[in-house]
């Protein structure tokens, strides 16, 4: 086919020079001077925004200054700006200090205006980047309004920087995140509190990518001796540290990955030998599987995912009931009736953690098995003993409205919980893929196809609206990466159901996924779910099918050159994701090879 000259891909948001941005001109981003500024003979005006990350302390200071100015503005008179009014306002404003916790000093601020309840939640809980839908007296949910005040939203990110590590990890007062280690740690000795704190902080900023939705207070450095729950098993902690090293991306972190991998494997074996904290072993195996899948070690990952799923069934995690708490009466049994008997949960938090552990296993098994064309391990519906009865994950009652980025509102205005949406999306992802892969289309097939299509429509109706770039944020991710993943999976499900045809609904789903990719900032890729690479591969194969389909003609909504541009953008996105997850690079290479083969390129 003739060679077409394709336009250069559009520049990523925020990479244009300030001069072109001001004049609304197209910029190619060349440094030190872009082509537009050279052409207009103003090279001295060509400047680029400094995109280097500011220190945590500097960001906190800047936010506090804005906060003090805003409080003075709200407490002062509506008109007039005399020095007397300013001093009076300043005197009535709370004094904020970097030296210690400052939440109590802000009690005088109207909570209905600032939604101060959520301020005490750790900063890393907001990793998805979307504020809670429970916004006090705000009439428009923050997560669904692009034009609402960025100040009310940024408050969530301002107050918790001081206490996230101190409150959760047992280190009192403000303490900046320790610097990335200048040399590898000696892992033959126990990790220091500072080292553990650093690794936990890194992991918890990325836990949404591992589908880890447990109670975070259990991971305090200094556990409450009166707590009814044991500390996490070393297998789980080492799996967390392994992924922290992966996300840390420093050279010394990379050197320590193999050591934490060996420690995790060893501790899993020890835990199984001693039947010790087996629910933690399930989650450790899940984290290990995700790490291995993302690093192209598919067979190893599948073994650990399969083992986690079968152990979860043996422990009865697939049939948890909300009344499964350990009874107060000694006459009742405190052991579960599962094949592998373990003590019943003693607190509501432990019960929620077991529910979260099961749905983590479910998502890893369903999603990653489908992504690699492997059979799933978890049964469902084949027999009453294998039927899944565990309720969908829910937020703790005391945390409703206090989980930024995890509780949003659906299109109908009903509150939804993101971990629950992710689990439902995973179920539909596997179910639609199974239908797309069916060899025979019998009456039973079409009945299931119809019911799955209805279930997908109902699920899409519950999804919160994706608002895209959230300009009030001062650091990545700049979009709600969790909601982006859910929307992507939901649209891939539509492609699965209509894979053999070029229906308008299928094309619209593929185009919507492309619109999500176009809203990503380069810094967002670090926080994306590695499963997105498999989803994008599905879209790419659909576009290749469009190009090679004999029915592809002038009546097709997308011309051939537009489809080729979309394929190019998909490969670029996979390469960007591949900087953090090698699996994405493998997917990009396969798409390039398949495109070249099917289109007859040499």
Automatic annotation (TrEMBL):
Does the record bear Signal in its keywords? no
The protein's UniProt keywords, in alphabetical order, are: Metal-binding, Nucleus, Transcription, Transcription regulation
Signal peptide extent: none
One GO cellular component this record assigns the protein to is: nucleus
Which regions are flagged for Low complexity bias?
77-93
Q: Which parts of the sequence are annotated with region: Disordered? A: 74-93
- Domain Zn(2)-C6 fungal-type intervals: 16-48
What's an example Gene Ontology biological process for this entry?
Answer: DNA-templated transcription
Subcellular locations according to the entry: Nucleus
Q: What GO molecular function terms would the record report? A: DNA binding; DNA-binding transcription factor activity, RNA polymerase II-specific; zinc ion binding
This chain's protein is named Zn(2)-C6 fungal-type domain-containing protein
């Amino acid at each position: 086919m003739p060679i077409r000259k394709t336009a250069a891909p559009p520049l990523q948001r925020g990479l244009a020079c300030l001069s072109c941005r001001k004049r609304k001109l197209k910029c190619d981003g060349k440094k030190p001077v872009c082509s537009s500024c050279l052409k207009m003979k103003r090279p001295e005006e060509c400047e680029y925004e400094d995109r280097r990350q500011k220190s945590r302390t500097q960001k906190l200071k800047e936010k506090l200054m804005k906060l003090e100015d805003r409080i003075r503005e709200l407490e002062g008179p509506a008109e007039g700006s005399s020095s007397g009014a300013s001093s009076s306002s300043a005197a009535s404003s709370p004094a904020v200090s970097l030296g210690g916790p400052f939440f109590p000093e802000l009690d005088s601020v109207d909570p209905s205006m600032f939604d101060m309840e959520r301020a005490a939640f750790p900063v890393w809980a907001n990793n998805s980047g979307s504020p809670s839908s429970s916004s006090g007296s705000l009439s428009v949910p923050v997560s669904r309004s692009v034009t609402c005040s960025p100040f009310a939203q940024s408050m969530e990110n301002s107050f918790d920087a001081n206490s996230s590590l101190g409150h959760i990890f047992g280190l009192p007062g403000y303490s900046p995140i320790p610097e990335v280690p200048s040399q590898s740690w000696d892992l033959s000795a126990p990790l220091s509190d500072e080292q553990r704190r650093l690794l936990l902080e890194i992991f918890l900023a990325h836990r949404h990518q591992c589908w880890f939705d447990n109670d975070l207070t259990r991971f305090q450095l200094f556990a409450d001796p009166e707590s009814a729950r044991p500390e996490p098993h070393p297998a789980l902690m080492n799996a967390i540290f392994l992924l922290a090293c992966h996300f840390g991306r420093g050279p010394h972190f990379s050197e320590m990955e193999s050591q934490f991998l060996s420690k995790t494997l060893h501790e899993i074996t020890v835990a199984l030998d001693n039947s010790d904290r087996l629910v933690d072993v399930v989650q450790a195996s899940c984290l290990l599987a995700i790490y291995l899948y993302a690093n192209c070690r598919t067979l190893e990952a599948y073994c650990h995912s399969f083992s986690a799923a079968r152990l979860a069934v043996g422990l009865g995690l697939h049939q948890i009931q909300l009344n499964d708490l350990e009874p107060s009466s000694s006459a009742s049994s405190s052991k579960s009736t599962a094949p592998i008997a373990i003590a019943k949960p003693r607190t509501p938090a432990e019960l929620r953690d077991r529910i979260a552990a099961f749905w983590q296993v479910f998502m890893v098994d369903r999603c990653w098995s489908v992504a690699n064309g492997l059979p799933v391990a978890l049964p469902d519906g084949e027999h009453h003993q294998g039927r899944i009865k565990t309720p969908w994950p829910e937020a703790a009652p005391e945390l409703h409205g206090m989980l930024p980025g995890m509780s949003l509102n659906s299109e109908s205005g009903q509150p939804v919980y993101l971990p629950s949406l992710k689990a439902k999306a995973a179920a539909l992802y596997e179910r639609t893929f199974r239908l797309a892969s069916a060899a025979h289309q019998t009456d039973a097939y079409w009945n299931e196809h119809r019911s799955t299509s209805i279930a997908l429509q109902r699920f899409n109706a519950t999804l919160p609206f994706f608002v895209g770039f959230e300009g009030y944020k001062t650091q990545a991710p700049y979009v709600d990466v969790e909601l982006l993943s859910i929307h992507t999976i939901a649209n891939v499900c539509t492609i699965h159901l209509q894979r053999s045809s070029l229906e308008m609904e299928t094309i619209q789903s593929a185009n919507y996924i492309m619109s999500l990719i176009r809203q990503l900032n380069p810094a967002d890729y670090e926080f994306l779910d590695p499963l997105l690479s498999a989803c994008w591969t599905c879209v790419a194969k659909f576009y290749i099918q469009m190009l090679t389909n004999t029915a592809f003609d002038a009546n097709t909504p997308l011309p051939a050159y537009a489809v080729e541009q979309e394929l190019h953008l998909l490969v670029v996105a996979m390469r960007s994701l591949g900087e953090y997850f090698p699996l994405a690079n493998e997917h990009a290479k396969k798409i390039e090879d398949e495109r070249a083969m099917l289109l007859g390129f040499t």
